[in-house]
Structure formats: C-alpha cells, structure tokens
Predict the structure.
Amino acid sequence: MIHFKKKPRVAFFDFACCEGCQLSVLEMEEKLLDLLSHVEVVEWREVMSEKSDEYDIAFCEGSITRKRDVERIQSIRERAETLVSLGACASISCHNALKNRWPMKEVVEMVYGDSGGHIDTIPARPVSDVVPVDYQIRGCPVSLPEFETVFKHILTGQSYDPPNQPVCVECKLNDTLCVYEKGMVCLGPVTRCGCNAVCTAYGDACQGCRGLIDEANTEAPARVLFREDLHPIMAEVARKNPLTRKEILAKFTVYNDTSEPDEEEESSDDNA
Amino acid sequence: MTAPENRVIPASNFTRFLEAIMAEQPVIGPRERPDQPGFYRFGRLARAEDFAPDYGTTTVPPKKTFAALREKLFSFTLDSPPELDLHFDSSPFVLLGIHPCDLSGIDALDHAYSQPPAEVRWTANRRRASLIGLDCRPDSYCFCTQVGTESNRNPCDLFLTPMEDGYLVEVHSDAGAALLEKADTRKAGEEDEAAAEQWRREKAAGIVPEFDAPVEKIADILEVGGLTPVWKETADRCYSCGSCNTTCPTCFCFDMVDDIEPDLSGGARYRTWDSCQLLDFALVASGHNFRGERWQRVRHRWQRKFLYLYRQFDRPYCTGCGRCSRACTADINLVDVANRLIAAAQKEA
C-alpha cells in the first residue's frame, strides 16, 4: 500500500475548450472518490468555488489561443511540479486549430465583423507547444479509464506514454465488428488508441479525436479507395463512400489540422 | 484409440445434445452479434438456440478462448515483498463450431506454445476444453485448400459435417466419444458418408483465391530475395494497423502491462495480443527500431507465416482462413501479395 506523507495538491485549469473533459472526469463517480482520497483538490472550476495559487499537480484543459493564455500557462508551469494536458484541445489543439488556416485578422472578422477589435487571438496551439508537459491525456473527451491510469501513474511516480497504436488494435482486442465490414469509412487505422475503441463499439466510425499515430499512412485511403481491383468488402466501402481526394483529406483535418500557425500574423496582432 | 465408426445426429437431437452438455459445463460457440445481424463472434451460449452453425467467419478467431485478448496473468500487492496471486481457472468447457482452418490454428499454437519453456497458461486452458469442429462453406476470402487445411480435424474431439437434417459426427478422441454418449445418434450409413463427401467437394470447389505456386515453394521464394519492390508497393497502402495479426489464428506475440488499483493497494499484470506490424513493435530501449520502415514490417509478416515458422515447424503458419485479408482496410490480400512475390521471383530467376 502506498502512503503519502503529505497529500499532493491538485488543480484543474481550462483554456480554449468546452470544459467537457473536466465534466467527463466527474462522471467517474465513486471511482473518482477513490482516486481523490489520495490528493487534496484546491481548484476545479466545474466543481468548486475555491481557488489556489499553490498546487503540485495541474490538469490543464484547452488550447492556447490568446497571448494572455501563454502567460497564464507559463505561470501554472512555474507553480506545478507536474503538468498534465487534459483532452484533445490541450494535447493536439483539436478543432481550435481549424482557424490556423486563415490570418487571425480574417478569423476575427469572420466571427465578430467589425466589432472584434478587442479580441486577443493567436493561432491555436497545444499546451506542449508553449511549456513542457509531463503527462498527456488525449481524446475528445478524455477516456475515463485512461484518466484513471494516468492519475495512478502520477501518484506512483511512473511515466506514461500515450498509446501510439491505431484504434484498430483496441477494436480487435474488444472483438468489435470492423465498421468497414458495414460499408463505413473510419479513421481508426491512422488514429491513436487509448479510448478503448468506444465509438466503434457502439457502431460509429472513429473521427480521429486522439490524433494521428506516428508515421500514419494518410496517403493510404486515396491509394485504396480508388483502386479498380478491390475485394468485396472494400469494394462496397468505395461504392458507398464516393469520396473525392479532398473529402478524404477533410476527414483527417477535423481533429488533426496540421496547418502551421502563422507566426507573422501573431506578431502583427497588437490591437488587443 | 481405434477409429470409431461415424455417427449421425438429427437436428432435433442435436439441440437436446447441446442442452445436455450445457447443463454440465459452459459451451462457447459462434453467436450472432447483438444488433448486427449477419455478423458473428465466439461467445458463451446462453441457450442451445444461440449456436449459429451457418456463421461464415468471425472477426477474431476462437484462439481467444485459450489466450484471452486481454488476460490477467496475476495480481500483486504493493507491499514489500509483494504478494502474488496467480489466476488459473481449471473448470471444463466445450468449444463448439470450430472450422477446420481454426482447428489448424489451435494446432499451430499447441506446437508453438509447447516449445520449451512451454507456455503454461495456454496449456492449462487447452486442457479445460473439449473441441467440437464443424465443416463450413467458404467465402471469397477463404483459401484453406491452398494451405491444405480444408479437411483438417486436428486437434478436435468431435467433428460435425452439416447434413440435410442434422450432422454426420466423426469421433476423434476418447473425450469426444464420452461427450457423444449424451447424444441420441444412429450409425452413419453409406448415404450419409456420401452426403458428407459431397459437402467437402462443394466446399473445395467454392474456394476462389489460389497461390500461383505450391505453398511449400513460398519459403524458397522468400529466401531468394529481389522482392523489395513488392514489399514497398504493398507497404505504400499498408496502415501498419496490425489487424492482420490481431485477427490471425496463428499469431502468438503479446505485450504485457501492469495496472494499479485506484486505492493503490495493489494491481495486476495483463497480457494482450501484440502485432509485428505496429511501428513500436521492434523498438528497443536504445531507441533503435529493428523494423522501422513499414515495408520491413510487411515483409516480416510473410516471412513469419511462410518462411521462419515453416522451416521451424514444417508447416505454414497460415490456415487459409482469410481473416487478415478481410480485416485489411487497405485491401491488402494475402494471396494476391504471395502471387506478386511468386511472379517477382520467377522474373528474378
């Protein structure tokens, strides 16, 4: 049995996101009570009113999208011994990165018209692009079993590598029917697992919320779906999904837009 | 044992037979997936009617019964010294409805796992089970005739061939004979044997994919070399998702992971199936990856199936079940690739 001399203090913080990952964590219910019995929670906006500037473990949700986010996350990093990026927005920028394709000025105009002069927006970045991150929990929202695993790794002082295997591995380990067999297109073969393949277990296709595996073969879908000599299952997939190359690429970018943040635009954004 | 005569069990008696077995021990067999008509998986039958004898194939082979996809090896306490608790279940069960190819897969793993040091967990689980095989109808991915498993019976205890009303039953072990005592059967006549023979002929005639060389020659071809263009061309669309391995009845590589209880009092070590196609499979502590290139991993799979293990165990480690080709979302078909290798080797020669 592990005993702590002093309970580690835990705080949750949010940046640009829906705060859904924080809420998801609450859904652990009685298991959460077990985990929290080892720590002292000092700040968690979705749960309590108290705040604190002193904490040991910081769970940070959301993308860094404003200049003051940069200062804030740097200050959290200085205070916390352990910093965790919580969820897709914090770990891979998620949908927030979609705006990075346009100059920030245009983005502000698109949303606020000519009354957005006060908006302090910079290209969206994951937390790890700004400060060192000790643990990463991916997913939109985070998977609760993985949250639990990472929490326990932190408490027992173990490092944690987010799984770098595709969702297909977990589908097979669950003996889940492949959605391609039902004629659907799924991002499972290129997407990191760790979610226990929950979407496909319920018959839905993977949308790629945990980000691409390393060296993901994103060229493969176009190389497969446009072949003339497909075998029955993939022939049916191709027939039911007459996607253009552009549409295939669009599927990858919902959670995984790799457009580079425009640095020039960031520095010119001085009107905040 | 001396070869006993074949028996016939009519359909209505077969249900009673199953019920009699299920009264004594669990029966695991092919079942239709809930809410997914037409798709099947192996699972415990709740009622005799759950048995789906016409199942075409399953995503994952029945080997999962003996080496679970995620298997708890032992639990431990976080004390020093830790207390270990090994989990061994010894209760008997029946595995029903195994096609000849999947029997061959179990046979392949019996061989591989009995090499010293023997894999105790597989052996222990195998001892718990009686196996009832079942003949099948091929789909367009099956190629059992190309690897010689279409009439394999090893290591089953009983084998069923579907007939118009019920099954022709072959008895392959004393355990099978004992099991069959629960059934109301009659002696198989010439007509019954002829019907079963007809089934086997139609099955063999239904196989579509064919190797362009005998399977024994593939090992030599793989050793000749000059095949890199085929590997690279295949790798161009391979996702390295590992589904060819995780659905394979003969793959036996695994990974291990520890999990700690939320109260931090202890935990357990789990074993899960692994795949040589995954990027990190051959990654070692120094950061070196022995098969860091996708085409090297693709090559490794064919070499394992048709060269290394073929030389070691004198049989291809492929049962012709076609699961890898079915599961491949890149539509990489094992027989197609083998034929491209054969063609490339002929060009080379």
Q: What stands out?
A: Residues 280 and 289 of chain B are 7 Å apart (CA to CA). Chain B touches chain A through 47 residues (CB under 8 Å).
